[in-house]
Specification:
Blueprint (H helix, E strand, L loop, with lengths): L1 E4 L36 H8 L6 H4 L5 E3 L11 E3 L2 E2 L4 H8 L5 E3 L6 E3 L2 E7 L4 E6 L13 H12 L12 E2 L2 E2 L1 E6 L2 E5 L7 H6 L11 H4 L10 H7 L5 H9 L19 E5 L7 E6 L5 E3 L10 E7 L2 H9 L5 E2 L9 H6 L1 H4 L1 E8 L3 E7 L6 H7 L2 H9 L3 H7 L21 H5 L6 H10 L19 E6 L5 H15 L4 E6 L2 H10 L5 E6 L23 H8 L10 H15 L3 H18 L2 E3 L6 E6 L2 E2 L4 E4 L15 E2 L3
Parallel strand pairs: 2-15, 3-16, 4-16, 18-26, 20-21, 20-22
Antiparallel strand pairs: 1-7, 5-6, 7-8, 8-12, 9-10, 11-12, 13-14, 14-16, 17-24, 18-24, 19-22, 19-23, 25-27
Helix pairs in contact: 13-16, 20-21
Protein name: ABC transporter substrate-binding protein
Subcellular location: Periplasm
Pfam family, one: SBP_bac_5
Length: 648
């Protein structure tokens, strides 16, 4: 059976789910003929009249996507001022500009719709995915975007082990997918086994690789295409061609993606002032070849530029917001403690709030490093009773009342009660504040207190460890850790808070595996496209088992072979990714969660609560409510390219 799809939707109660067996809904975007495209920004009209740019109907191609704006057809012009926090806030740019992949989530986070692909077909029970590209579509420099670009991205990069290991999202049944060029505007991906999660994987920010790089530009940095690549390596101070490629073409989640104005993209805005060391702001200007139009034939985006000043701390960001210098903000500013001052200054800053809805899980989890390099700490951390004692010794209600202004309720992690993936044991066990029982468990492990009140391990060393945290990512994390530090001290456990800048945090916790413990969010509902990093060690945020993650991602050639409880979950996870039946997938994930609940590797704090963002009062077509999730990723599916400034 072949299913031709313009959008695929799951059962409504699954919210953000996606299964191949779900019903087909009407398309959200309409087909269009190029001759219907007549509107363009005045600055582009001037360039056309001067002979510096082709007419708009030639730039958008024969099959532009027609997008219906949320409330109104927009006006051209103006800047969208966002902000960046320091030198490692590259994903904020990605969230606004959007990961322009083959498909994307709809604004409600309920179904997958075509994006770069004009349509797609799923056949052979979910093994074969055929994508029909947009005829005449172009890169931001005017060069054609065709199936050859997709083949370059897949064959020369994604499946090229000399470049990097193949990400699991492009594998099934232990084998990488195969790619085939059907014609200049049609590509086919074939998997060994059914892969029900594939479309959702492509809709996530990390699924853009099939269309990320322009072959005509990025191929010059590869030895297979350029005999003189060594000269470029030396000229750019690179260590090898792979390093050179990253410098010039970047990757999905690194600052270099936004560091080279010469790199062609499919984005609505393109870099003109890059995100490089020493920069005080980043600027992106409209892509004259962007491939979306509105329902009356105006080429998008409406807004001329995205301007992102760089602030070094959250306090500076808040001052920028209340001073009226930010047009849209969510990331970094949304902790509960900031809301009163932002609410008080709404009139002065000329903005209002929008709701950012949680997709499930917890805003703060603590992961002890179960693959620690120190054998004594590893042995201690791998004692389940030790982890349970820490959870029972945590007064979550005090944290919620003091740090979160009473918002939230004690929670480990996992989907909420009204979600079909909800797993009660995993989410609600060991939440009671019970220091007496916690002390009993620690006593039972033979961790006797020293004269200073701190317990001692068998080797005589104190039970002391650091928790790595990024204070600027979420200020409530450090405030919460300060209370947890005091609470655990009553148990004889000496926890130290180790704040650090995000780049160093990632290097220490996700790459080198040098951490004792780390804080991160676990705001997940386990639906397709989300990586369940707190259930299985498959991601750089699985900081409770980084060496096991390396083993899994490398097919056993790197890292450390995990215990059977982990292997079983990894096998179930690979099975779940392939399932095309909604209920069967839920049941498989519950099998994974059963094991994870029994092992209890990750400690949660409080149920994730809806937060808020700010938007200027005259910025139109911004929803009053939107999902808040990296996997969505907020606000990209609301299509900021349709936002515009109200005429006075």
């Amino acid at each position: 059976m072949v299913r031709t799809v313009s959008s695929i939707a799951p059962v409504r109660r699954l919210r953000a789910g996606l299964m191949l067996g779900a019903g087909i809904l009407p398309v959200l975007a309409l087909s269009a003929a190029a001759q219907d495209v007549t509107g363009q920004a005045p600055s582009l009209s001037e360039m056309v009249e001067a002979g510096d740019l082709p007419p708009v109907e030639a730039r958008v191609g024969d099959e532009p996507e027609v997008v219906e704006p949320l409330n109104a057809i927009g006006n051209y012009g103006g800047d969208l001022r966002i902000y960046l926090r320091g030198s490692s806030d590259h994903n904020h740019i990605l969230r606004v500009v959007g990961p322009q992949g083959l498909v994307r989530w709809d604004p409600e986070y309920t179904k997958i719709v075509p994006n770069v692909a004009e349509r797609f077909e799923v056949s052979e029970g979910g093994r074969v995915f055929t994508f029909y590209l947009r005829d005449g579509m172009k890169w931001s420099d005017g060069e054609p975007f065709t199936a050859d670009d997709v083949l370059f991205n897949i064959e020369d990069l994604v499946l090229n082990d000399e470049f990097a290991p193949t990400p699991p999202r492009y594998t099934s049944g232990g084998e990488p997918m195969q790619v085939e060029k059907v014609d200049d505007y049609t590509v086919r991906f074939t998997f060994k086994e059914p892969y029900g999660d594939f479309l959702a994987e492509l809709a996530s920010p990390l699924g853009q690789h099939p269309v990320l790089y322009a072959k005509h530009y990025c191929a010059q940095f590869m030895p297979d295409y350029n005999d003189d690549v060594d000269a470029l390596i030396e000229e750019n101070g690179a260590t090898d061609w792979q390093n050179l490629f990253m410098q010039k073409c970047g990757d999905i989640e690194i600052p270099a993606r936004w560091g080279n104005p010469e790199r062609p993209t499919l984005d609505p805005w393109i870099i003109t002032e890059p995100y490089v060391g020493g920069a005080t702001r980043v600027v992106l200007e409209r892509n004259p070849y962007f491939w979306q139009i509105d329902t009356v034939g105006n080429q998008l985006p409406y807004i001329d530029r995205v301007v992102a000043p760089i602030d070094q701390d959250v306090e500076s960001l808040i001052l920028s917001v209340i001073g009226g210098k930010v047009d849209f903000g969510l990331r970094h500013i949304d902790p509960p403690a900031n809301r009163p001052v932002l609410a008080e200054n709404r009139e002065e800053g000329d903005y209002h709030f929008f709701e950012a809805k949680s997709t499930g899980g917890t805003d703060m989890s603590i992961s002890l490093n179960l693959t620690h390099k120190d054998p004594d700490l590893r042995e201690l951390f791998n004692e389940k009773d030790f982890r349970v004692a820490l959870s029972l010794g945590m007064d979550r209600q005090e944290i919620i009342d003091t740090v979160m202004l009473g918002q939230g309720e004690p929670w480990q992690h996992g989907p909420f009660e009204d979600h079909p993936y909800h797993h009660e044991q995993l989410s609600t066990q060991y939440l009671d504040y019970d220091p007496e029982r916690a002390n009993e468990l620690l006593d039972g492990l033979g961790l006797e207190r020293g004269d200073d009140g701190v317990r001692r391990m068998e080797n005589g060393e104190p039970v002391r460890f650091q928790v790595d945290v990024i204070p600027t990512f979420d200020p409530t994390w450090v405030d919460s850790l300060e209370l947890i530090e005091q609470q655990w001290a009553l148990l004889g456990v000496d926890m130290e808070i180790n704040p650090m800048e995000r780049t160093f945090f990632y290097e220490r916790t996700s790459n080198s595996n040098d951490h004792d413990a780390a804080v991160w969010r676990a705001t997940q509902s386990w639906v397709p496209g989300q990586i369940p990093q707190m259930l299985v060690p498959v991601h750089h945020d699985s900081r409770w088992g980084i060496a096991w993650r390396d083993w899994y991602l490398s097919g056993g050639s790197e890292g450390e072979e995990p215990p059977e409880t982990i292997k079983t979950r990894l096998e179930l996870y690979d099975t779940a990714r392939g399932l095309t039946d909604t209920q069967e997938r839920i049941e498989t994930f519950h099998e994974i969660a059963d094991i994870a609940a029994e092992e209890f590797e990750v400690i949660g704090v409080s149920k994730a609560v809806p937060t808020y963002g700010i938007v200027k009062n005259d910025l139109m077509n911004v929803p009053e409510s939107m999902p808040s999730s990296w996997y969505y990723p907020t606000p990209s599916p609301t299509l900021p390219q349709t936002w515009f400034w109200k005429d006075e």
